[in-house]
Amino acid sequence: MADSRVAAGTLRPSTAPGRRANNSEMAVSPSSAVRVERLVVRRGATTVLDGLDLRIPRGGVVGLLGPSGCGKTTLMRSIVGVQRVASGRVTVLGAPAGSAALRRRVGYVTQAASVYDDLTVRQNLRYVARILGAPASDVDRVIAATDLAAHTGSLVGDLSGGQRSRVSLAAALLGSPELLVLDEPTVGLDPVLRVELWALFSRLAERGVTLLVSSHVMDEARRCDRLLLMRNGAMVADATPSALLKKTRTRDIESAFLALIEKAGGS
Predict the structure, then answer these.
(1) Which of 45, 93, 221, 260 stands 20 to 30 A from 244 (CA)?
(2) Model-wide pTM > 0.70
(3) Could you tell me the pLDDT band of residue 12, with boundaries at 50, 70 and 90?
(4) How many CA atoms, within 13 angstroms, populate the side-chain half-sphere of residue 89?
């Protein structure tokens, strides 16, 4: 089973051989939450990310959108320091990605729920809170934020897929993470809860937290302060929703995305 610490951003980087994204001592502006420089990631003979450059300022909700298989998860894994990379570097909150200094500053929610099935919801969250040194009151706070009050005594293994994902999200919210990396956190959730979670993301951003939220659902894009559109491992656009619509002269993000692909000569 995956370690529950994946959800709260304290997973230790893998010791597998190969160059990593955290091999930089370069100083980064305090205004930068994430700096990606010439990042190359290969999977076998396939190059997933090829020389990617990206900068994410602190604060705000940044949407990472694109079709399945375009490299979103690979990029997010690189940012939290658990992805083997071929070359390039990733710096997070002024430190190399995946370094020990970031383990209590970065929250990470994977697509697959990273919690213990043989513990209850509350037991999972208490365990993570103790590791983080978060106050006990934080457990009730994140339970309420993710609408899990009715399931606190339930074994995680008995929950639905959407409910298990919410437990992972709750774990990532424990403490005071400065950066939240959320890989498709609303998949499998009902529309009402999706709206509530996006409202929560906005409140966190207002407090200065930086959120990088991936999705392949284009209608979630308007809820973001800034959009990163990916296709085939490359950035197609980096703009605010309004600027993107204005640039492409379209009415919705999906049409804007298709317009950019057509302009680039893609299929």
Answers:
(1) 93
(2) yes
(3) very low
(4) 13
